[in-house]
Amino acid sequence: MSFSAVVVAAGAGLRAGPGEPKVWRTLGGKPIVRWSVEGLLAAGAREVVVVVARDRLGQIDEALTGLEGWRAVTGGRTRAESVQAGLAGVTAGRNQPVLIHDAARPFVSREHVGRLLAALDLADGAVPALPVADTLKRGEGLVDETVSREGLWRAQTPQAFRVGRLKAAYRRWPANEEPTDDAAVLERAGGHVAMVPGDPMLMKLTYPEDFLLAEHLAGSRRIVRTGLGIDAHRFGPGDVVWLCGIRIEHELGLVGHSDADAGLHAITDAVLGAIGAGDIGEHFPPNDPRWKGASSDQFLRHAVGLVKAKGGRLLNADVTLICERPKIGPHRQEMRARIADLLELPIDRVSVKATTTEGMGFTGREEGLMAQAVVSVETPA
C-alpha cells in the first residue's frame, strides 16, 4: 500500500545532554535523522516530509544527501505545530495513509510499517505498542502507591492515520493543550485507534545512555562489503599521464575514451562492485561521445553518490599501480590526497602502492600500465 510519511525533527532534545540536538548527532556514522528517513523510504514511502527548525533547513540537505523522495518544511514552537506543518506538506489525498514518526526513533523498518498499514483497514489509526513490563509506582521521592500495570501499554512511533482524518482531528484539538502523541488527537475526535505489536528496536533516543545502546544496535544492522577493480591502458602519443587524479608529465600519454586514468577507473569499479552496481562501462559507455576526454573524477564521484543513496559509506581504499614508468613514488602523497578528497575519506584510509613486473608482460615492456583497487563499503544489512 502506498503511503506518505512525516518525520518530526524540529525539537531541541534537551534531555539528551550537551551538544547538538539529538537528531543531528551521528549514529553508525550518519545523522540520526537520516536513519528514520532512509527507513521509511526503504519501506515504500511515496514521499517523506521532514519537519525541521528554520535554522536547520540548510543542514538537512547535507544530512540526507543522495536520498530521493523527501522534502523539508519548517516546524513550529511545539511538536503538535510541527506535525501539522508536516501534514500541510503532504501531497497525498485525504483518504491516503500517512505515518507520523519521531526522527529520534532511528530503527523503523518495513515490518513495522506493514503492520500499521494493515491495521488501517479496520481502524481510523494505528500505533505500535509494547506492554508495560515494569512495576509502576506513583510518588515524589517517596512511594505513594503502586499502580497496576494491567492493560497499560507504551505507545511508539510511527503512528498511522488517514491524511484527512488526522488533519480534521488536529483542527478540533484545543489550542492551549499539547497532545502527548498523534493518536491522542484522533482519540479525542472520536477516532478508533488500533494497537499493533511494538518492537524494542523502536526505542526513542532521549537520554545520553540511550545513544550507547543505539550505537551497538546500529552496528548489528550494517555489513561491510568489499569491491575489487582492475583497469589497464596502453601508452600512445602524448606528453601527459593522468593517474589517480594527478597530472604527471611523461614522454607518452595513455590511450582511452576518457582521460584514461586507470587508477580512478579501478577505484570506481571497486566501489560499484562493492554495492552490486555493475561496472564503469554500464554507467559511462565508452562509445558515448559525452565521455570523450572526460575527467575520471566525475566517474568516481558518481559511484560515491550511489553508495550514499544506499545509505552506505566508504571505509577505505587500497590502490596498486603496476608500471615501469612513470615513477609513482614522487606523486604518491598527492595521489592519496586526491583520492581521499574524491572518496570523502581521511587520508590515512587511502593507500597507494606501486610495483613492477620485473620486465615481464605488457607493463614490463612499457606498452601500458595497470591499476588494481580494493575498497570497503559499509551498508545497511
Task: Provide keyphrases for this structure.
381 residues; elongated; 30% helix; eight-stranded mixed beta sheet; 2 domains; five-stranded mixed beta sheet; alpha/beta; 60s Ribosomal Protein L30, Chain: A; single chain; 12 helices; Spore Coat Polysaccharide Biosynthesis Protein SpsA, Chain A
Question: What's a quick, concise take on this entry?
Answer:
Helices cover 30% and strands 30% of the residues.
Structure description:
With 381 residues, this protein is of the alpha/beta class. It folds into 2 domains: 3-220, Spore Coat Polysaccharide Biosynthesis Protein SpsA, Chain A (Alpha-Beta Complex), CATH 3.90.550; 222-380, 2-C-methyl-D-erythritol 2,4-cyclodiphosphate synthase (60s Ribosomal Protein L30, Chain: A). Helices cover 30% and strands 30% of the residues. The chain has 12 helices and 19 strands. The two termini are 24 Å apart.
CATH superfamily of the largest domain: Spore Coat Polysaccharide Biosynthesis Protein SpsA, Chain A
Main sheet: strands, sense, barrel: 8 strands, mixed
* Percent range for β-strand residues: 25-35%
Mean pLDDT: 92
Structural class: alpha/beta
Share of helix, binned: 25-40%
N-to-C terminal Cα separation, in Å?
24 Å
What is the fold-level CATH name, i.e. the topology of the largest domain?
Spore Coat Polysaccharide Biosynthesis Protein SpsA, Chain A
Can you tell me the overall shape?
Answer: elongated
Catalogue the unreliable spans: none
Set down the secondary structure blueprint.
Blueprint (H helix, E strand, L loop, with lengths): L2 E7 L16 E2 L2 E2 H11 L2 E8 L4 H7 L6 E5 L4 H10 L8 E6 L7 H10 L5 E7 L4 E5 L1 E6 L5 E3 L3 E4 H10 L9 H7 L4 E5 L10 H13 L1 E15 L3 E4 L2 E4 L3 E2 L7 H13 L5 H4 L13 H13 L3 E10 L9 H12 L6 E6 L5 H4 L3 E13 L1
Parallel strand pairs: 1-4, 1-6, 4-5, 7-12, 17-18
Antiparallel strand pairs: 2-3, 6-11, 7-10, 7-11, 8-9, 13-16, 13-19, 14-15, 17-19
Helix pairs in contact: 5-6, 8-10
